[in-house]
């Protein structure tokens, strides 16, 4: 099975159609714990005492304990749920169970039992293994990659992942955050997990004691937005969107891009793209580039204003060429 994101797993739970085995791994213990807790939603609250179980594999430190623990785990997993469509079993510190440090006959026998269960899991039991990352070369990991849903926690793939990560961290700290505030914080930090973690920690300290963290709190704490695409400005010019191109230009300047580097990108755009998209206006575009280059070297104006003028001119040249 493909590696899934926490957001995709939440959809599995919400739909009421989970897979039989999940492996939640990664370095982000907060997200792993929060995601694992969501599986309880598969069982009605009044029936959870009969249909949910937590197993701590950290105590299975030798072969005999491992064998006993695996036998108990499989027996629990094979037990049918009581008045519920599913039984949920959470195994914490699962890396101790799945990758024992010491080899022995008992440990080998226990791993063999696990492999047999993963090959034919109980369809009415949702087994959730929560642990540190496993060695992808190991036999058991390769089997799980075929038979289980593997979830990488602490990996930010897109804006939605970043927003969800922010909300999870804030909730774990016992606080609440406005959706707009979470969205702004995620947008400014981008996909940088270290920056997200630092911004959330500062935000929690800044808003200590507040019932809800607001968008104004985020504006006070979070730094400027992170540039997600180095070529977004040139792409916007190609699309004839002066407003988007100017926004991307401002973002590049605010994140410290040298004006000379930006001018170089615009020069590449004119040389590489304009012969095809606006051939009749290529001379005007080249003249605008040379003029801006000369003005920057002579300090004949604020670099931001000079580059903004050039971007607007290039967008106008593109439109003229298209007509």
Cα gyration radius (Å): 27 Å
CATH architecture of the largest domain: 3-Layer(aba) Sandwich
Any idea of the CATH topology of the largest domain? Rossmann fold
The main sheet comes to:
5 strands, parallel
Mean pLDDT: 87
What's the multimeric state? single chain
Q: Helicity, in percent?
A: 55-70%
Structural class: alpha/beta
Shape: elongated
Percent strand equals 5-15%
Number of strands: 5
Q: How many helices?
A: 17
Please report the distance between the alpha carbons of the first and last residues: 50 Å
Q: Write the element-wise H/E pattern from the N-terminal end onward.
A: HEHHEHEHHEHEHHHHHHHHHH
Q: Total domains, how many?
A: 3
**CATH homologous superfamily grouping of the largest domain:** P-loop containing nucleotide triphosphate hydrolases
CATH class of the largest domain: Alpha Beta
Quick recap:
This protein has 323 residues and is of the alpha/beta class.
Question: What can you see in these coordinates?
Answer:
This protein is of the alpha/beta class and 323 residues long. It has 3 domains: 6-152, Rossmann fold (3-Layer(aba) Sandwich); 159-221, Helicase, Ruva Protein, domain 3, CATH 1.10.8; 232-322, Zinc Finger, Delta Prime, domain 3 (Up-down Bundle). It contains 17 helices and 5 strands. Helix 8 packs across helix 9. It starts with 5 loop residues before the first helix and ends with a helix. 33% of the residues are buried.
């Amino acid at each position: 099975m493909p590696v899934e994101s926490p957001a995709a797993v939440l959809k599995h739970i919400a739909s009421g159609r989970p897979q039989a085995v999940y492996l939640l791994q990664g370095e982000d213990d907060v997200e792993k714990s929060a995601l694992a807790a969501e599986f309880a939603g598969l069982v009605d609250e009044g029936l959870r005492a009969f249909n949910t179980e937590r197993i701590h594999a950290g105590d299975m430190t030798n072969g005999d304990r491992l064998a006993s623990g695996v036998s108990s785990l499989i027996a629990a997993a094979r037990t049918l749920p009581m008045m519920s469509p599913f039984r949920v079993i959470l195994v914490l510190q699962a890396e101790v169970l799945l990758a024992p440090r010491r080899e022995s006959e008992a440990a080998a026998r226990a791993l063999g039992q696990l492999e047999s269960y993963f090959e034919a899991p109980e369809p009415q039991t949702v087994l959730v293994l929560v642990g540190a990352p496993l060695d992808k070369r190991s036999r058991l990991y390769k089997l799980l990659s075929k038979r289980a849903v593997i979830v990488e926690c602490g990996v930010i793939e897109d804006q939605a992942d970043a927003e969800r990560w922010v909300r999870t961290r804030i909730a774990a700290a016992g606080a609440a955050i406005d959706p707009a505030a979470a969205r702004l914080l995620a947008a400014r930090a981008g996909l940088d997990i270290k920056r997200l973690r630092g911004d959330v920690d500062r935000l929690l300290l800044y808003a200590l004691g507040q019932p809800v963290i607001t968008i104004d709190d985020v504006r006070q704490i979070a730094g400027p937005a992170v540039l997600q695409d180095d070529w977004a400005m040139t792409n916007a010019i190609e699309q004839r969107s002066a407003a988007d191109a100017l926004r991307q230009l401002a973002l590049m300047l605010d994140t410290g891009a040298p004006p000379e580097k930006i001018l170089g990108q615009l020069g590449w755009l004119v040389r590489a793209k304009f012969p095809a998209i606006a051939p009749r206006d290529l001379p005007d575009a080249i003249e605008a580039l040379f003029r801006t280059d000369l003005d920057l070297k002579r300090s004949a104006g604020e670099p931001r204003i000079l580059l903004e003028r050039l971007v607007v001119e290039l967008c106008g040249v593109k439109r003229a060429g298209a007509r």
